[in-house]
Amino acid sequence: MIEKEIMIQGNDPIFGTLTFPEEDVTYPALLLLPGSGPVDRDGNDRKGKYQTNLYKDLAHFMTGLGFAVLRFDKRGTGKRGGDWMAAGLSDLTSDAKSAMKFLRAHPNVDQENVIVCGHSERTIIATILAETMNPAGCMLLSGGVDNLMQALHHQRQLAYKELFELPGFKGWINRTLKVDVKNEKKTEKLLEKMKKSDEDIIKIQFFFKQPAKWFREHSDYDTRAALKKVTCLVFALHGDKDPLVESRVLEELDELVQGKSEYHIIHNMEHGLRVQDEERSMLKMKKIFKEVLKRPLHEEGLEKMAGWLNSHFKTKDVSGSK
């Protein structure tokens, strides 16, 4: 495997890593878009608290299948300047489009066979690129169909359900105080404040920063309407232990997209595509995550990805070499 550091020129240069199975051969390619939060091209944060290497591992796996793979630092992570919290959906989409153009123009990439692959929140950006840039395929990992507001609503409802089901006094007091009603009112008030603001970042209670532009632009984006314009092949993958997504929405894919689609829900797989034997839980997710990080990516999940990629995008050298 060949791994190279790249820089995409512009007013705000983008730094990333491009991997190939071999040099001087032309390959189908994947643009890998990482999930939300301050994690770099590999899936790691600057402070070393969350060292997942998820995107590095995925890139190496996909390169092993015979694909070129580009992953890059988001704003304010890795070698990239800026503030990740100030970036809105439009900024993130602009970066992704620049990376897609770079990948298509690379001499060792088959520009007719470039696939966009988004994880978590970046499944929404992958959908935008599928709608507007006509890639050969679109992969939605641990996300898809719902927009951000709908996904967050689902997460809150699952958390309320767990709070109400706590044993003894804890569950009783949560039900009695109607914590769901009170929290939904607070959430609605906060979202309204961000929508009315024209700032990239706002503070609540004087100290706590919130990515207002990110929320505003996400709340205005209709993912299902975009999917209706998607003509490329679409692949979606969820884990049944992932509390951050509602997997039933994947049943809508076939009716939404114009091209052929397929989806898989993997038993005992969590949001970061690793093995999770523990229960599916919003309240215990952070605690479980510490143990999950010690485990490998889910073998069945990788097999489903490999099967789709190999069946639709056979590795080939369009320059004539084999």
Automatic annotation (TrEMBL):
InterPro entries: AB_hydrolase_Est10, AB_hydrolase_fold, Hydrolase_4
Tree of life domain: Bacteria
Short name of any one Pfam family annotated for the protein: Hydrolase_4
Domain Serine aminopeptidase S33 residue range list: 53-273
GO MF annotation terms: carboxylic ester hydrolase activity
SUPFAM superfamilies: alpha/beta-Hydrolases (SSF53474)
PANTHER family: ESTERASE ESTD
Protein name: Serine aminopeptidase S33 domain-containing protein
Species of provenance: Domibacillus antri
